[in-house]
Write a structure and sequence with these properties.
Strand content of chain A: 15-25%
Largest interface: A-B, 63 and 63 residues
Oligomer: homodimer
Largest sheet of chain A: 6 strands, parallel
Number of strands of chain A: 12
Shape of chain A: elongated
Strand order of the largest sheet of chain A: 2-1-3-4-5-11
Number of domains of chain A: 3
Helix content of chain A: 40-55%
CATH class of the largest domain in chain A: Alpha Beta
Order of helices and strands of chain A: HHHHEHEHEHEEHEHEHEHEEHEE
Distance between the termini of chain A: 75 Å
Low-confidence stretches of chain A: none
DNA sequence: CCCATGTCCCAAAGCGCTTTGGATAGCGGC
DNA sequence: GCCGCTATCCAAAGCGCTTTGGGACATGGG
C-alpha cells in the first residue's frame, strides 16, 4: 500500500541515499537519474513518512495551536474558526501540519511544555492574549517560536505579534459618532482582562476627550460577547436617566443583540439610536450590500490568520529573523446603522 | 532541555530497554526499580518524543480532521468550532493529537491519500457529509478508520457515523406547529446537497402529511445558513398571496435573520408568526432562561464532538469493532417564539 | 548437586528517513 | 601514463523510541 523510500530505491536499483537526494533536490544526482526517480515516485505516489522524516531532520513540520477552554465559562470563541481556517490554508501550502490542542485553561502552560518536550511542533500560535499574559514569558523561556494574535501590554522582552489597530479603529468609530452630534455613547466591550478590550476602550476614551465629553462608567460594559449580552445592554441602558444615543459593539453577535433590543423598544436603528460594531468579516455573518446594515470597523480575521501563519513560519524557518510585528488597520465602513443624533 | 530516554536511562545506570518497559507498564520490571524510574522521569519531566515513539510503534497517535473550504462560497461552518472543541477534549485526554487540514474542496481526496501515505494519522473524522458523499467509498478503500459526523444516503457498505435524528426532530417540530393550527409552515433549510437538510425536509414532509397538509414548494428554501438568508426568506415570504404563519429554521443564525425580518415588518414573534429553529447549543449563541427566546430542536454539537471522538478512537484501537453508529435525539425545547395561529 | 523455572535486566535490531564520509569512474592536463 | 578534479553514487550511522531474543542470577524440586 504505502511505499517506503527503501522499496522505491530497490525498485529502481538505486540506493536510498540517491533517491532521497534526488527527491529533496540536492545537486549531486545525475539529471537523467533524477528524472527517472521523480517519475517513479510520482507513479507510485510516494510520500515520505512524516514521522520518519522529522525524526531524521529534527524539525516537526508542524505548528501548534493551543486553545484553552475555560471550565467556568464554556465559550469557544467563534472567531477561532475563521482565524484557524486562514492560518490552515497557509500551513497546508507550505507543507506544514496544523495541530490543535483543546485544553482546560488551567493546563495551558503544561500543554506548551508538553508540546516542547515531545518535540511535537516547531512553533505555536497564541490566541486571545490577556492584558498581562503569562504565555509570552513562558514561551520565550521555553525557546519555542511563537506568534501572538493580538498583543499583550506589560512584557519586558520584545515578541512577535500580529494585531489589528483596535485603538485607532475605536477612536475613529467614536469620533464618527461625536461628529454626528452624539455625546452619550455606550461601549459594549469584551471581557475586561482581554487586551483588545483595553485598547478599544482607550481609543474610545481618546475620542471622547477630543470631543470634550467626559466618560461615564455607566455607559461602559465588559462581558462575554454573546447575543443576549448585547440585548441586555440595550434594554437596560435606555432606562438610564440620560440614555445613550449611540452604541459601540465589540462584535457582530453583540450588535445583533443590540438591534433586537432596539426592535423590542420600538426604536429604529440609525435613526433613534446609532450603532457601530466591529466586524471580523466572518463568512456566516455577512454585512454586505450597497449600504451594509451595520456601520462597522471591519477587518477580516481570516486574512489575519493567513498573515499570522506566514509570519510564524518565517520565525520558525529563520530563527534569527527577530521579533516580527504587524499592525493591520480596520476599515471604517459606513452602513445604515448610524446617523445624526435624533430626538 | 528536552531529555531523551537514553539520557534518562544513563542517569539511572539502567538500559533504555528497562526504562522504556517501566514507563510503559510492562510486568518484567522490579517494583523498586520501576518506582525509581517513574520518580526520575517525573522529576525531569520526561516525555517521549512523539515522532520517535510513533515511528517505533507504527501508530501515529493522531486523528485528522480535513476541513474543505469551497472556493466558490467561502463559508467556514460555524459549528465546526464547537464540534472540534468537543472532539479535541476527548483526544487530549486519550493522549491523541488532533491534526487539522484546511484544504480547497477540490483537493480533499488528495488530502486523505496524502495523510495515509505519510502515515500521519490513525483515523479521520468526516465533516458535513453530502447526500451522496464520495468520501465514504474513498476512505473504506484506503483502509483508514473514519467516523462520519452525520450520515450519507446511498452507500452500499456499512460505515460508522454519529448523527442527530434530524428527521424526527423536524417532524416533531412541524407537528408541534400543526397542533397549534398552523397550516402554512415554511422550511428555511440548509444547502440542498447536504444530507442533514434532506432528512429535515423528510421529517417536515411527514408531519405535513400526517396533518393532511399538502406541501408547497414556495414555502421551502435551501441555502447557506447566514443571517441575511433568514432575513430575506422572511421578508419575501410574507408577501406571498397566502403567507406562512410559521417558520422552521435550520440554525440559530438563520432564526436571527427571520426575527429581524419580523421586527422590520412590525410583526411579533410567537404571536403573529411562530418560529422554531434547530439549536446546536453554541456557547456564544445561548438560548436559555426560564422561557427561552426561541422554541428549538436542541442538541449540543459540542457533546456530539465528544462522543464522535470516543467512537473514532474505539474504531482506531480495536479494528475489529465493526461499524459503530449512534443516533442522538434532539430535545424539543419550548420557548417564546411559538404560539397558536393568530390572525 | 543438577536442572528446570522464574525474575529482572540488557544488547541489538528496526521503524523510515537524512546525512556524513567515502568510493568509483570518467575526464582533461601535464 | 599519472594526477587531480569533478560528477555520481552508496554504505553506514543516527534521529529517539519499542521490541525481540537472550543472559545472569536466584530459587526450588528431584
Amino acid at each position: 500500500m504505502t511505499v517506503t523510500l527503501k522499496q522505491l530505491a530497490a525498485s529502481l536499483g538505486l540506493s536510498p541515499t540517491t533517491v532521497s537526494r534526488a527527491l529533496n533536490g540536492f545537486p549531486e544526482v545525475n539529471a537523467a537519474t533524477r528524472k527517472r526517480i521523480l517519475q517513479a515516485a510520482a507513479e507510485v505516489e510516494y510520500r515520505p513518512n512524516t514521522r520518519a522524516k522529522s525524526l531524521a531532520t529534527g524539525r516537526a513540520q508542524a505548528i501548534g495551536h493551543v486553545i484553552p477552554v475555560s471550565t467556568s465559562h464554556e465559550i469557544v470563541n467563534p472567531i477561532f474558526a475563521d482565524f484557524i481556517a486562514g492560518a490552515g490554508e497557509t500551513y497546508s501550502s507550505a507543507g506544514y501540519e496544523m495541530i490543535l490542542r483543546i485544553v482546560p485553561d488551567a493546563e495551558e502552560a503544561r500543554a506548551y511544555r508538553d508540546l516542547v518536550a515531545r518535540g511535537a511542533v516547531d512553533g505555536v500560535m497564541v490566541h486571545a492574549p490577556l492584558r498581562h499574559d503569562p504565555r509570552v514569558a513562558l514561551l520565550t523561556e521555553l525557546g519555542l517560536p511563537f506568534l501572538v494574535h493580538g498583543r499583550t501590554s506589560d512584557v519586558a522582552r520584545p515578541y512577535s505579534w500580529l494585531d489589528i489597530n483596535n485603538q485607532r479603529a475605536f477612536r475613529r468609530a467614536t469620533q464618527f459618532l461625536t461628529e454626528f452630534g452624539h455625546r452619550r455613547i455606550a461601549l459594549i466591550n469584551g471581557l475586561e482582562n482581554m487586551d483588545f478590550a483595553q485598547r478599544r476602550r482607550n481609543g474610545y476614551l481618546e475620542a471622547l476627550r477630543d470631543a470634550a465629553i467626559s466618560p461615564d462608567e455607566a455607559l461602559i460594559r465588559n462581558g462575554e460577547m454573546t447575543e443576549p449580552y448585547g440585548y441586555r445592554a440595550m434594554t437596560e441602558m435606555v432606562q438610564l436617566p440620560d440614555p445613550p444615543t449611540a452604541f459601540l459593539a465589540s462584535s457582530m453577535i453583540v450588535a445583533y443583540g443590540l438591534r433586537r433590543g432596539l426592535a423590542d423598544l420600538g426604536l429604529r436603528m440609525g435613526r433613534d439610536v446609532s450603532i457601530i460594531t466591529h466586524d471580523d468579516d466572518l463568512s456566516y455573518l455577512p454585512n454586505q450590500g450597497d449600504v451594509p446594515v451595520f456601520t462597522t470597523t471591519k477587518s477580516s480575521v481570516r486574512e489575519a490568520g493567513r498573515r499570522a501563519a506566514k509570519m510564524l513560519l518565517k520565525l520558525v524557518e529563520s530563527p534569527g529573523a527577530g521579533p516580527l510585528t504587524q499592525l493591520m488597520e480596520a476599515a471604517l465602513v459606513v452602513g445604515a446603522s448610524t446617523g445624526p443624533v435624533h430626538r
